[in-house]
Amino acid sequence: MTQPDCYERLRHKLNLFFINTPKAPSILKILAHLFTPEEAELLSLFNAPYLDARTVDTFAKRAKKDIGQVREIFDTLCKRGILFKYFNKNEDTDYYSLMAMLPGLFEFYYSANPSLNLEEEARPAEWFEDYKVNIFQEEARSTFPWVRVLPAAAPVDKLIEVNQAVSSDPEILPFEIAKEVLDQCRRIAVIPCACRVHGRYLGRDVSKWPIETCLMLNSWADFAISQGFGREFSKDEAEQLLHTCSKAGLVHSTMNSMQTYFICNCDPENCLILAGFIRRRYNDTLTRSNFIPAFDHTLCKKCGTCIEKCPTNALSRHYPHASNLEDDFVTWREELCIGCGVCATNCTQGAINLQKVRDSKVKDSLVELWQSFAAGKCGLHNKPQ
Ligand code: SF4
Ligand code: SF4
Ligand code: SF4
Fold first, then answer.
1. Is 0.85 surpassed by the pTM of this model?
2. From ligand 2's centre to the CA of 328, what distance in Å?
3. Which ligand is nearest to the CA of 343?
4. DSSP H helices in 18-144
5. Nearest CA to 100 among 1, 187, 13, 36?
6. Is 125 in the pocket of ligand 1 (CB under 6 A)?
7. Predicted confidence (pLDDT) at residue 264 exceeds the cutoff of 90
8. 316 CB under 6 A from ligand 2?
9. How far is the CA of 110 from the centre of ligand 2 (A)?
10. Residue of the nearest CA to atom 2 in ligand 1?
11. Which atom of ligand 3 has the smallest separation from the CA of 336?
């Protein structure tokens, strides 16, 4: 069946975001699954994702429709997680904005709707999987990736402690520490992890990880709480969740700027962010943290936990060649390590610490982040000769 033109018009607007939305069959099918033709027609009147936030009356004029009718459609879409709304206190009014395909529609659709009919969601989940793996992973490559890994808190705290004891400047900067990112937040909410909800609709067993693990910050927290799919969290609760996630082998990730709207806790099998790095060996889909693990081999009991928990398979056992076992140790592959600290969090022997080895900086604002991302886009459109 041919798609009505409204979906292509909507795709065209989504394509204006820095991570593009190309014309691909799976994308048009996703849009037709998420939106009725009337909804798609209305949303295609936004000028671009996020940047063109409008009040409902401004938008009703643009759409030449009744204000009440547009408000009803918009508020229904917000409840379903697929239209963004925030309250402007100064003007005492709501503003609505179109979301990008990702970050946006994918995450909020699945986070806001974790318990839909499994059979009905199976096909759309396959279209989203095609989008995630074959389209998004290509479009999200840049010399300045939009996402960066945040190291687990416990090993960084230990590092700071050790450095202070030897009176050296730890030079650990605020954006490198989850606690500081949370301290700068006005509001925090926890929502279900979209990638694992999506994995469940694909029929995968996601039960080995917790589901409610995505931290939304500030206006994204306001949105999730006001639409009923986010639970308000204190900073202590958020820190505790991060520790639980690191113990479970999940990787903290956030936006590559001081201004950020989430801290995700990502698993290696379902995560849209880790997928490019792990499955496709793209090292330009995320920014590694500034830390690497440092091993004290004398303390290591060869229990294998760090090897089993490492999300990127950067660790393995070097079985001894020597009879006296002197070369029996855990090996580390730098090119596969993202500096998440999961290995250090899970080593009960204290044999792994984190060490700061890089000084990569984040951008101050989202505008700078997206400009740098766009300027560094790579890997696309290379037509083989
Ligand atoms: S990016 Fe990570 S935490 Fe966020 S929804 Fe995906 S797996 Fe979950
Ligand atoms: S978790 Fe610790 S003790 Fe176990 S193998 Fe890894 S480094 Fe050694
Ligand atoms: S070795 Fe693995 S678990 Fe440890 S920091 Fe690197 S990627 Fe994370």
1. yes
2. 12
3. 3
4. 25-34, 37-43, 56-63, 67-79, 105-112, 118-130, 137-139
5. 13
6. no
7. yes
8. no
9. 36
10. 266
11. 7
Shared domain for 48 and 175, answered yes or no, is no
* Spatial distance between the Cα atoms of 283 and 259, rounded to a whole number of angstroms: 23
Distance 339 CA to ligand 3 centre (A): 5
Q: Is 251 in the pocket of ligand 2 (CB under 6 A)?
A: no
Claim to verify: residue 63 and residue 202 sit in the same structural domain: no
Domain extent for 222: 147-361
Residue nearest to atom 2 of ligand 3 (CA): 310
Do 85 and 191 have their domain in common?
no
Position in ligand 3 atom list of the atom nearest CA 332: 1
**Dihedrals phi, psi of 108, to nearest 5 degrees:** -75, -30
Q: How far is the CA of 225 from the centre of ligand 3 (A)?
A: 33
Whether a cis peptide bond, with omega within 30° of 0, leads into 103 is: yes
DSSP 3-state helix, strand, coil percentages of the chain (rounded to 5)? Answer: 40, 15, 40
Ligand 2 proximity of 302 Cβ (cutoff 6 Å):
yes
pLDDT above 90: percentage of residues in the chain = 81
Domain tally, the chain: 2
Q: Where are the beta strands (DSSP E) in 180-241?
A: 188-192, 212-217, 231-233
Q: Say if ligand 3 is within 6 A of residue 339 CB.
A: yes
- For residue 295, which atom of ligand 2 is closest to its CA? 7
Instruction: Please spell the DSSP secondary structure of 240-268, one letter per residue.
Output: HHHHHHHHTTPEEEEESBSS-SEEEEE-T
Question: 195 CB under 6 A from ligand 2?
Answer: no
Is 140 contained in some domain? no
What is the amino acid identity at position 45? L
Residues 78 and 171 in one domain: no
Q: Tell me: do 20 and 87 sit in the same domain.
A: yes
Q: Which distant-in-sequence residues (6+ apart) come within 8 Å of 334 by Cβ?
A: 292, 314
Is residue 131 situated within a structural domain?
A: no
Contact by Cβ (8 Å): 40, 77: no
Rounded to whole angstroms, how far apart are CA atoms 215 and 254? 10
Q: Is 305 in the pocket of ligand 2 (CB under 6 A)?
A: yes
- Residue 242 Cβ < 6 Å to ligand 1: no
For residue 30, give the CATH number of its domain. 1.10.10.10
Say whether both 84 and 154 belong to one domain.
Answer: no
- Could you report the per-residue pLDDT of 319-335, keeping only the tens digit for each? 999 898 888 999 999 99
pLDDT band at 168 (very low <50, low <70, confident <90, very high): low
